[in-house]
Structure formats: structure tokens, C-alpha cells
Design a protein that fits this description.
Layout lengths: L1 H19 L2 E7 L2 E9 L5 E9 L4 E12 L8 E14 L3 E14 L4 E7 L2 E7 L2 E4 L10 E7 L1
Antiparallel strand pairs: 1-2, 1-10, 2-3, 3-4, 4-5, 5-6, 6-7, 6-8, 7-10, 8-9
């Protein structure tokens, strides 16, 4: 009985800790159009997961672990943040592509629950077509800046 009680308290504690972390959900536009979700991991670092199109002709799932590099106090209200981090992407079209990606960006979170961000997210990987692998050059379009608008909760 004691073990069940301890396990229940631990599960409840993990659930409370997970819901206490800031999150944001919204859209990301650029060379791609994606639904974007951010989840902070205790401190200022966060995981970003995106689901959408890449190059408007393929379905793409990607995730990055972003490190908050700096949070300058440029304004008295709201928060600024420079971030960068590595990630992975998986895409589907007439073929499957796998890519490693990097993300670097600047975000501003208003004093009300709105977050705006501008970032670059290039991908370096390959297409797998009919047993052959080709360089995924569409991933270089990630050097085109993207704009994100998210609701922060």
C-alpha cells in the first residue's frame, strides 16, 4: 500500500511539474507553413515541434532543442530572447527525406499571451527514392527567414 501511495504522489508531482512549464502554440510561415508548439524545459531552454509543409509540396515533421543564448532587457514590458539549437526533420513526398537541422532566432513575448519570432531553420539531409539517396537541397531554403505567431500559456 505504501508503494502505491508513493507512486501516486510521484505521478501527480510529474503531472503538476509538466503543466507548470510555459508553453506556446501557433503558426510558423516562411518557405514552409507549419503548426508550431513550444514547451519550456524548466529554465529558459525549450523544445519546439513543428508539423506542416516544407516547400509547399511535402509533409514535414520536425523538432529542435533550443538553448536560450541571451534575454536582453530592451523593453520594460515583455521579454526578448535569442535562441539556437539542433534538431531533426522527417518529410514525405513522392519520397522520404531525413534531415538534420539547426535553428537560430529572435523572439518577443508580449506582456499579454502573444509571442512573435523570426528564425532561420536550414535542413541538411537526403531523399530516399527507389533505393537511391540524393542530397535534400530544398532544405537550404530554410535560410529564408520565417515568422512565427504563437499563443503563450
Amino acid at each position: 500500500m505504501k508503494k502505491i501511495l508513493i507512486a501516486a504522489v510521484m505521478v501527480l508531482g510529474f503531472a503538476v511539474a509538466a503543466t507548470a512549464q510555459p508553453k506556446a502554440i501557433g503558426l510558423r510561415w516562411g518557405f514552409n507553413t507549419e503548426i508550431s508548439y513550444q514547451h519550456n524545459l524548466g529554465g529558459a531552454n525549450f523544445v519546439e515541434a513543428n508539423l506542416g509543409t516544407f516547400g509547399f509540396d511535402s509533409f514535414d515533421i520536425s523538432s529542435t532543442y533550443n538553448f536560450m543564448i541571451a534575454q536582453p532587457a530592451w523593453t520594460s514590458q515583455g521579454e526578448w530572447g535569442f535562441y539556437a539549437g539542433p534538431g531533426l526533420a522527417l518529410g514525405f513526398n513522392n519520397a522520404v527525406n531525413f534531415a538534420v537541422q539547426g535553428q537560430i532566432g529572435l523572439e518577443y513575448t508580449f506582456w499579454f499571451p502573444l509571442q512573435l519570432a523570426v528564425d532561420l531553420k536550414p535542413q541538411f539531409g537526403f531523399w530516399a527514392v527507389n533505393g537511391h539517396a540524393y542530397f535534400f537541397r530544398e532544405g537550404l531554403y530554410g535560410f529564408i527567414p520565417s515568422l512565427s505567431v504563437r499563443y503563450r500559456f
